[in-house]
Amino acid sequence: MPRRSPLEAEMYDHLGPSRFSAQGFLGEDTRDFEEILADDAQALQRLGVSKDRLLQALRDVYDQALQAGGDPVEIGNGVIAECLECRGRVPSPFPGEGTFPKHQVRVFREEGQQWFAITPLALHLIDRHDFFQGIGSPFRIDPTQAAALLGMTES
User: Fold this and answer.
1) Low-confidence ranges of the chain (pLDDT < 50)
2) 0.85 surpassed by pTM
3) Element (H, E) at 13
């Protein structure tokens, strides 16, 4: 683990399990925060998909599902999005960034086990910090899987 300033160490602690995020934002990932960011950026580069393009596609799916009021929305190629509206708000793990609605949009393929969830906080973390969350985090959006399910890659 790299040497961190006290402020960085405090921020890193906020990414772990807490009363707001039972499993934390790192999940079971043993990589350093910076390594997680670098690996996800490299994955996007290998796919030829920019973070901004993927983020916009995620936002579009989130908005479509939210407007459908809980009804399934077909995204294309057998991929469905459904919104689960949850009461309450959750704070960003980065101090001073506010709180976000707990709504979730589950994106999944009709056949098979592939799925991921989009939340307002997850969109914020990707936009502001390039942070898709750690492996094993319940709200990690794996950029490779998301790009594939959203039809942004050939697989």
Assistant:
1) none
2) yes
3) helix 6-14
